[in-house]
Amino acid sequence: VWYQDINREQYLNNDLYVQFDYKKGPWIITLGDRFRNNTFWNKPYEKEGESLWSYNRSDHAFFASAGYKKGHHFVQGIFNRSYFNPSVNIFIDYQEEGPTRYNTDQKTRIAWRSELRYTYQAEQIVATCSATHTLLTDMPLADESLIGLGTTVTWNKGPLRITGGVNAYHHHYELLESV
Prior knowledge:
Layout: E1 7-24, E2 27-44, E3 53-70, E4 73-83, E5 92-93, E6 101-102, E7 110-121, E8 125-136, E9 142-157, E10 160-174
Antiparallel strand pairs: 1-2, 2-3, 3-4, 4-7, 5-6, 7-8, 8-9, 9-10
């Protein structure tokens, strides 16, 4: 049973990164994996006899990139498959009347992400532009995707660093028709 405003909700993430970089002339190739173990738990305050609710999940986030660098210019393509890191409230079934119950039947929520990035780097300035597309699977909405465009500029002078950026995102989804 979940009692609003009197719960102690916590989570613990353990990450292990493995990455392989290969450079041949102007080409840079990167392959990697991020292993994550998530543990979520809840213990109601001042509720004797209430047991500790917990949920554990382990997953891998794989990524690959290929880049080409010539002079001050760097072009990179990135692809990865990762999982959404849910917050504790995703496990709460808000449809229940009365005290809310925990829902432990969670699907694997995978995100397939691709990015094309261009970077210009000089002695005092770094400018980056990127375009991303993320396809979300096993989400409540069918065919859910995110498209993003962004740019960031950083100016360095000794210990001073000024960074500015602009990002635009479009969230697209199609609802399934009920039968």
